[in-house]
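dude i think i finally got it to work??
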Amino acid sequence: MSDGFLHESLRCVDWGVATADTIAAPPPPQPERGGHFRQWTDDLRQLTGVVADTHRMVAGWPQLQPDGPGSWDRDALDRCDRALDALLAHGTRPALTLLDRSLPPWLDAAGGWLARDTAEHFAAYAAELGRRFGDRVERWITSTDLAGPTLADHVAGMYPPNRGAGRAGLPTVHHILLANGLATQALRATGARGRIGTTVTLVGGYPATDDPYDRLALERLESWTNRLFLDPLLLGEHMVTEDGDSPVADTGCVRPGDLETITTEQDLLGLSWHTPFRVTAPENLPRVLPTRTCQSALNAVNRLLVGLGFAIVPFDDVETTAYGWPIIPEGLADAVAGLYELYGDALPPLSVIDNGMADLDLVDATGHSDDDRRRALLRARLSWLAGLTAAGVEVCGYEYWSVLDNLEAKFRYTRLYAMAVPDHEAPPRPSMPSDWLQHGAFAGAAVPEAGWATGLSLVPTAPRAQDSGIS
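look at this
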């Protein structure tokens, strides 16, 4: 299927907030991977002179253990073996992800990440893969995203719909972090030789105005995203608010020794980065937006977020992608800088993943992409990131996805790759969300007070003038 056909099929899609309505269109056809692989490898070769020699895949836990603990699908294991051997035969270094949101059905039915036992099952699964593949995998990623299976699923009820429990779902955050620590220990115990780490979705942005309450709103956003996962992972303590509350620990899910396991040393930390946000305090919405658009800005997502003390609004006079994401090449570097100032030497080496142009507007009517434009924006983003590495922030990797970045996930919150899935079968797609945004992830919870505890940040008060030509 050509890129031109794919682009044409998406012209009527609303790329705004990903509600059930805006992603209700049928999923696009699977794109041809070969062409896009060549495209982004050509981009990197043109800009850096480097030829990519690694390939990251998802093992596919639901396919490998469909029937319960201790049982394995031998055909699926054989497919993993063949895939790893094929990569090595072509001179490519394999990287293997153990979890990409989806759990085996028997675990999901037992409560998923709400159940503490899921962490133990995950460690046993990791140990088995370490014994089988540990001599060939050069990098292990325990999970592609810690927030998706926890905050998005059991707190907000995004996928599948109607099981979000609000604050009662916060033990999932603790359990998935515990699973990461146990799995890291289990992999090392098998003698697996590759580096081991996990992935967090890096969230960053800019205050909408110079009002201190907008700065506070941005800190609240970062607390409920970055700090919620990284405080326990790197500091050995769950995020504590300025008034002394710990949203996760206060649920009673923490047992003696858990935080020591969670802080098991990581060889790397993956940062999944998509877009910066412009953040305001809810009471400042009328100041930031024209009155006639203020109500529409209080959309389904913001109706959830205002309960936590912040809201997200569009940038002024900033070019956007077809998704509606602002094109701010320095946004990634600013977010990483803020993370470094918050955690400093506690951060393991950082690897930026799931990052790309993600803009179908750069595909013309004939299906050909605007290579110069895409590469200029990539050059600018890498230049800002290079400034951080020169200042001493250790970035050990960068994975670039090109024009069709995250397209399938945008439509149906689904996995992109699963190594154990037969070639002739598409990866499983979860049910479409229905009205997960309408009830409020934190319904019935008290509105947070001002003054959430956060660290300092290097993020400026406004994005710098866009520069897509820095070399």
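Confidence is low (pLDDT under 50) at residues 1-37, 291-298, 408-471.
im so relieved honestly
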